[in-house]
Design goal:
Shape of chain A: globular
Order of helices and strands of chain B: HEEHEHHHEEH
Distance between the termini of chain A: 29 Å
Structural class of chain B: mainly alpha
Number of strands of chain B: 5
Strand content of chain A: under 5%
Number of helices of chain B: 6
Helix content of chain A: 55-70%
Structural class of chain A: mainly alpha
Helix content of chain B: 40-55%
Largest interface: A-B, 118 and 104 residues
Oligomer: heterodimer
Shape of chain B: elongated
Radius of gyration of chain B: 23 Å
Strand order of the largest sheet of chain B: 3-5-4
Number of strands of chain A: 4
Number of domains of chain B: 2
Radius of gyration of chain A: 23 Å
Number of helices of chain A: 19
Largest sheet of chain B: 3 strands, antiparallel
Order of helices and strands of chain A: HHHHHHHEEHHHHHHHEEHHHHH
Strand order of the largest sheet of chain A: 1-2
Chain lengths: ~575, ~190
C-alpha cells in the first residue's frame, strides 16, 4: 500500500487510541477524582485558585456561568487591543516590527479570544515577540473557556434536577493546568527535538551557496505551536503557518501536530460518555462525526493525489499529485488529510495552501466549516452538535408521536427556539456577508480588484471561504484574498464575535433550562438516543440544515469551477 | 458583572504570568538541550554557515540541482505560497513558461518526464526538498556541466534520498541544499 495513505491511517488510529484514555482522564479531572498527575499538577491548581481569588466549591447556575465567561472574555479583549496597538514600543521586539492599526488589532483581538485565529497579517513582519506570546496566552485561555462551557453542558445533562452546575473558574483553571499545560509541554518538547526554534534572538542572516544574502526569521516558536494545535487555535507564528519548515520540520512533526489538531475534540466525546456513564451515547456521537469526516476526507485525499487536471493538460507528469501550495515532505495525502481535519475542527492551521486545492477538495474544506460539528472546535464543537441533537430529538419525537425527551428531560418550545436560532445564525452570517462582499465586488470590480487573487468562481470561493472560516471560528483562509483592509477586518471581526458567543450562550441556556426540569425516568415510550437509528436521524438533520443550505453558494463557487475546468 | 470582574482581572494576570512567563521559560530551558539550542540548526560548508537545515534556498544555477519555484523568492523572513487557484489562466501561463524554461536548460528531457513539483510553487516558498524523480530528471544537465558520468551522479543522488518515516509512513524526499553541498565537495576532489 502507498506509504502516504498508510501515514494518514496511522494518524487517525493514533488519535482515537489516545483519545479514549484521555477522555477517561479528563472526566476524572472535572469530577474532582484522583489522577496520577495530581502530585505535580495539584500545587499549580492551588496557585491559580489562590492568586486568582477563586473558590472552586462555589456552585453557579447557567446564567452565572455565562456572566463569568463573558466578563473574562471582555477583559481579554481590552488587554489584547492594548498590546497589539502598542507592541512596537513595548519590549521583546528585536526585529522592530510595528504596532497594529486599530482595525487590524480589532480583527486580531476578536480572532484570538474567540479561538478563531484568522490572521490578516504575517507573523514575521507584523508582530513582536511580546505580541506572539500574548497571542499564545489567548490560545490557552480561549480554548480553556470553550472547554469549560462544554463541561457545564455535560454536567447539566446528568440525570437529576438541579440548578447548580459547578464552578466556571474551576473548570476553566483545571482545563488550563490539567489538560492543556501537560499536553502542550509534551508536544513542544517533541517539536523542539525535531529542530523547531525556541529563542528570543531576532532575525539571522547568511550567504547562501549561490551567494544570495538571506534573512531568516526565528522566535519562540515551539511553545506556541504546541498549543496552537492542541487548542484548535491554528494561529501560526509564521505567515505560511505549518507549511513553513520551522513551524513543521518533517513528516513526524506533521503527524504529531495533526494528531494534536483533532485529539481534544474527539476526546471530549469520550469524556461525555464517562461523565454521564453512557458510553454507548459517546460511540453513537463519535460514529456520526466520523462518518461525516470520512465523507470529506476520502475524496479529498484521492483528488489531491490524482493531481490538477489543468496542469495535466500542459503535458507534464504529476507523480506526486497536485503540488501547487504543497510541501514535498508532507505530500498530497497528508496535506489533504490536514486540510480536512483543520476545517472540521475549527483549528485553521494549514500545512498547504487551501487556495490551491483542486475545486472539490476546496469545497470539502468549506463544508467542514459550514457544518462545523464533525468533531468541531475544542468544547464548542460538541456545543454545536448538541444543538443538532436537540433538533433531532424534537423532529423524531414529532415523527413517532411521542413527547420529545433527551436523557429524561422534556424538550419544549423554548429550547427548540433557541436551538433553531443558533443553528440558523451560522448559515445567516456566512451567506449574508458573502452576498454583501460579492455585491460590492460585482458592482465595482475595478475598485475592489485588489481583494481577489483569482478570477471567476474561484474568486467567489475566496470570499465564501473567508466568512465560513470566520463564522466557524476556524481561522484558515483561501489566502489569496487580501483581507487586511478595514472592510474585511471589521466585517470578519463582527462575524467571529457573533458566531463565538451566541453558539455558547444558546446551548448553555438550553442545558441550564433542561437541568432544572423534572427528571422523567426512561420508560418503554422513551426515544432512545444511544442507538444507531437516532445517529442516522442526527446525521440527516445536520445534512439537511447545515450542509444543504449552503448548496446554492457552493454551486457558484467550487462546483462551477469544477465543471468549468474539465 | 461586578462580582465577576475582580476574579476575571486577577485570573487573567495569573494566566499571563504563568503561560507567558513560566511555561515559556520552561520550554526555552528545555530548548537549550535540543539540536541548535532552539536557535535553528545551521549547515556549514567550508567552515561557513551557508543555510539553515530546515529552510530551503534558491538554486537556479544550471550546475546545481534546482529547488522548487517559490512564491516569495526563498525569503526566509516572509514565507508564503502563490495562492493561485488550480484553473487560474495567469497561473497556468506561469507554469507553462516554467516548463519551457526547464526544457531549454535540459535539452535531453522530454516534457512528460517533468514532475509537476519542479514547476509549481510550494506552500511555504521555502520547501527544502524535491522528490527522487525531480532529482533524476536534472542529472543529465548537471553531469554534462560538471564533467561527470550520469551514473556517478546518480550514486550521489541516491545517497541523499530520505526514505519514508520508519520505511512506511509518508513521502520520500531529497534535501536539495545537502545534495548540492555534497555535489560541490565531490566535484572539487
Amino acid at each position: 500500500m502507498n506509504t502516504e495513505i498508510i501515514g494518514v491511517i496511522v494518524m487517525f488510529l493514533a488519535t482515537v487510541l489516545l483519545a479514549i484514555p484521555l477522555g477517561r482522564y479528563m472526566s476524572k479531572v472535572y469530577e474532582g477524582q484522583k489522577t496520577w498527575l495530581d502530585p505535580v499538577l495539584a500545587p499549580i491548581d492551588k496557585l491559580f485558585f489562590k492568586a486568582g481569588g477563586i473558590h472552586p466549591e462555589k456552585e453557579m447556575n447557567w446564567k452565572q456561568h455565562l456572566l463569568a465567561l463573558l466578563t473574562i472574555n471582555f477583559v481579554w479583549a481590552l488587554f489584547s487591543m492594548f498590546v497589539l496597538m502598542n507592541m512596537g514600543w513595548l519590549p521583546l521586539n528585536p526585529d522592530g516590527n510595528p504596532s497594529m492599526s486599530a482595525d487590524l488589532a480589532f480583527n486580531t483581538t476578536i480572532s484570538f479570544i474567540s479561538n478563531t485565529n484568522i490572521q490578516h497579517y504575517s507573523g514575521e513582519t507584523a508582530v513582536s515577540y511580546l505580541g506572539q506570546l500574548v497571542l499564545m496566552l489567548f490560545q490557552f485561555i480561549s480554548a480553556a473557556a470553550g472547554i469549560a462551557a462544554c463541561i457545564v453542558v455535560f454536567i447539566a445533562m446528568k440525570e437529576r434536577t438541579t440548578e447548580k452546575l459547578g464552578n466556571f473558574y474551576n473548570y476553566f483553571i483545571k482545563t488550563c493546568t490539567r489538560v492543556l499545560l501537560p499536553l502542550s509541554v509534551v508536544v513542544a518538547v517533541i517539536l523542539l527535538f525535531n529542530g523547531m526554534p525556541m529563542t528570543f534572538k531576532g532575525k539571522d542572516h547568511f550567504i547562501s551557496v549561490q551567494g544570495d544574502t538571506v534573512q531568516v526569521s526565528r522566535g519562540p516558536v515551539a511553545a506556541m505551536i504546541a498549543i496552537k494545535q492542541l487548542g484548535t487555535n491554528g494561529g501560526g507564528f509564521f505567515g505560511a503557518n505549518s507549511a513553513q519548515p520551522m513551524e513543521n520540520p518533517n513528516y513526524f512533526t506533521n503527524m504529531v501536530e495533526n494528531v494534536s489538531i483533532i485529539l481534544i475534540p474527539i476526546t471530549l466525546v469520550f469524556t461525555l460518555g464517562n461523565m454521564l456513564k453512557r458510553k454507548r451515547l459517546s460511540w453513537v456521537i463519535f460514529g456520526v462525526m466520523t462518518v461525516g469526516f470520512l465523507i470529506y476526507v476520502i475524496p479529498s485525499i484521492y483528488l489531491e493525489m490524482k493531481g490538477n487536471p489543468s496542469i495535466g493538460h500542459l503535458g507534464i507528469s504529476q507523480p506526486l499529485g497536485n503540488m501547487e501550495g504543497k510541501e514535498v515532505r508532507f505530500g498530497p495525502a497528508a496535506s489533504a488529510y490536514w486540510g480536512i481535519t483543520t476545517t472540521v475542527t475549527s483549528n485553521g492551521s494549514v500545512n498547504s495552501m487551501h487556495d490551491s486545492f483542486t475545486p472539490v477538495t476546496g469545497m470539502f474544506t468549506m463544508l467542514g466549516m459550514m457544518v462545523n460539528n464533525f468533531y468541531g472546535g475544542v468544547g464548542v464543537g460538541f456545543l454545536n452538535f448538541y444543538i443538532y441533537i436537540i433538533i433531532a430529538v424534537f423532529i423524531s419525537g414529532l415523527m413517532v408521536g411521542r413527547t420529545p425527551e433527551l436523557l429524561g428531560k422534556k424538550i419544549e418550545a423554548k429550547e427548540m427556539k433557541i436551538a433553531t436560532i443558533v443553528a440558523l445564525l451560522h448559515t445567516f452570517l456566512i451567506l449574508s456577508f458573502t452576498a454583501l462582499a460579492a455585491h460590492l465586488f460585482a458592482n465595482n470590480p475595478t475598485a475592489y480588484a485588489a481583494w481577489l487573487n483569482n478570477p471567476g468562481s474561484h474568486g467567489f470561493s475566496e470570499m465564501l471561504y473567508e466568512y465560513s472560516s470566520a463564522s466557524a471560528n476556524n481561522g484558515s483562509e483561501f489566502a489569496g484574498l487580501s483581507a487586511n483592509t478595514p472592510f474585511w477586518n471589521i466585517t470578519d471581526g463582527l462575524v467571529m464575535l457573533l458566531s463565538r458567543y451566541l453558539p455558547i450562550i444558546g446551548p448553555l441556556a438550553i442545558a441550564g433550562i433542561l437541568a432544572k426540569k423534572k427528571f422523567v425516568p426512561e420508560s418503554a415510550g422513551t426515544l432512545k438516543t444511544d442507538t444507531g437509528t437516532f445517529g442516522i436521524m442526527v446525521f440527516a438533520v445536520i445534512a439537511i440544515i447545515a450542509a444543504l443550505s449552503f448548496f446554492p453558494a457552493l454551486t457558484l463557487g467550487p462546483i462551477a469551477e469544477f465543471f468549468a475546468s474539465k | 458583572m461586578k462580582q465577576h470582574i475582580i476574579p476575571a482581572l486577577r485570573l487573567t494576570l495569573v494566566c499571563l504570568l504563568f503561560f507567558c512567563g513560566l511555561y515559556t521559560l520552561l520550554i526555552l530551558g528545555i530548548a537549550q538541550a535540543s539540536p541548535g539550542k532552539g536557535e535553528g540548526e545551521t549547515i556549514l560548508a567550508n567552515g561557513k554557515v551557508v543555510g539553515y537545515a530546515l529552510e530551503g534556498q534558491n538554486f537556479s544555477n544550471d550546475q546545481y540541482f534546482w529547488s522548487r519555484p517559490s512564491a516569495v523568492s526563498y525569503n526566509a523572513a516572509g514565507s508564503g505560497g502563490s495562492n493561485k487557484g488550480p484553473a487560474n489562466p495567469d497561473y497556468l501561463k506561469d507554469v507553462t513558461s516554467r516548463i519551457d524554461s526547464f526544457l531549454v536548460h535540459n535539452k535531453s528531457v522530454s516534457k512528460n518526464d517533468i514532475p509537476s513539483e519542479l514547476v509549481t510553487a510550494s506552500g511555504s516558498g521555502l520547501d527544502p526538498d524535491i522528490s527522487r524523480k525531480a532529482a533524476y530528471v536534472q542529472i543529465a544537465r548537471i553531469a554534462k556541466l560538471r564533467g561527470m558520468t550520469e551514473d556517478a551522479l546518480k550514486v550521489i543522488v541516491d545517497q541523499h534520498i530520505d526514505h519514508p518515516l520508519l520505511g512506511f509512513l509518508g513521502t520520500e524526499k531529497i534535501n536539495v541544499l545537502k545534495l548540492n553541498i555534497d555535489l560541490d565537495k565531490t566535484t572539487l576532489k
